[in-house]
Amino acid sequence: MNGRDAGFRGEIAKGLFAENPVFVKALGLCPALAVTNSAINGLAMGLATTFVLFMSSLLVSALRRLIPSQVRISTYIVVIATFVTVADFSLQALAPAIHREMGAFIALIVVNCLILGRAEAFASRHPVPAALGDALGMGAGFAGALILIGGVREVLGSGALFGFALFGPRFEPWVVMILPPGGFLVVGVLLLLFARRAAARERAAAAEERR
Q1: Phi, psi dihedral angles at 161 (to 5 degrees)
Q2: Which stretches of the chain score pLDDT less than 50?
């Protein structure tokens, strides 16, 4: 494996775990709370966001030397809004039921701090391969987080996963889980677990250095 491949894979891996945008960086919490009452909604939002992040990172990185610094943020927003429109219309045509459920949140990907933040902090400062690796990793980490949150809420709140019933008729769903308070509860617990995992790793690393 050459250095370029290792770097590309490293950029992907960091978004999945070490720098997960939701559970570590606490970015994109609005859609993570708003649309994850089911796993399928989390998947749809995650894929749409990953598409926008990937394409906008590609374009921003490719044009980084041509975009004047004075208008870089407004340029990034125009680029992001273009791909959000593509994602919005595509989802409306291919999955109208899911599009109706998510309402305005697909259009609000434009103001997702994850996408603009990666364009400013990473894609505008790195070549295309690294920017694409970062976009894939962050997008996959974001999508995985939304699917996890949506899956937990759907299983507990309706006894199903991706619309397929998991339990018999005796199961009593926790209706609160598919309501807004359930979103806050699940996200809070998962944030706590990730924070404890990160703290444990830091303690282990410190103990290793002292040896």
Answers
A1: -145, 125
A2: 1
